[in-house]
Amino acid sequence: MPGQTRRAFIAALGIALSVFLCLGAAAQDGYHGAGHDRWHQDFYSKLRRNDGQGSCCSLMDCRPTQSRMTGDHYEVKVDDEWVPVPQDKINNVVAPDGGAHVCAPRQVGRNKGVLFCVILPSEG
């Protein structure tokens, strides 16, 4: 491979890798809509709210995220901010990937802090 062609190939590969990593990071930060399509049909569409108000997911509300235990409660990352999880929002199911997922509206205005459902990662 000539030097100029090789440099162009490496640059293109670097750009593709950067895009891939950024998309993965967005999904794990719980951004509204990120990663939704992958799980909707087989998982999110079947989740029900614990308060009896129907489905957890309204088109783009559910997505993969991160979770952590802080003191005596869990928190999940929603639109790149840590949000405390009320116990009654936790669904006792295991996600197909074993990871954390959150169903929540876009976190703006009066929806700030609103969660419909949270799926915590499987333990063990």
Mind explaining what this structure looks like?
The chain has helices at residues 3-28, 36-39, and strands spanning 62-65, 67-70, 73-78, 81-84, 100-103, 117-119. Strand 3 and strand 4 (81-84) form a beta hairpin. The strands form two sheets. Strands 1-5-6 form a three-stranded antiparallel sheet, with no helix packed on it. It has one domain. The chain is globular, with a radius of gyration of 18 Å. By secondary structure, it is α+β, with helices and mostly antiparallel strands. It is 24% helix and 20% strand.
Shape: globular
Number of strands: 6
With strands numbered from the N-terminus, the spatial order across the biggest sheet is 1-5-6
Based on CA atoms alone, the radius of gyration comes out at 18 Å
What sequence of helices (H) and strands (E) makes up the elements? HHEEEEEE
Low-confidence stretches: 8-27
Portion of residues in beta strands equals 15-25%
Describe the structure using short key phrases.
124 residues; alpha+beta; three-stranded antiparallel sheet; 2 helices; 6 strands
What would a concise description of this structure say?
With 124 residues, the protein is of the alpha+beta class. Helix content is 24%, strand content 20%.
Topology:
Elements: H1 3-28, H2 36-39, E1 62-65, E2 67-70, E3 73-78, E4 81-84, E5 100-103, E6 117-119
Antiparallel strand pairs: 1-5, 2-3, 3-4, 5-6
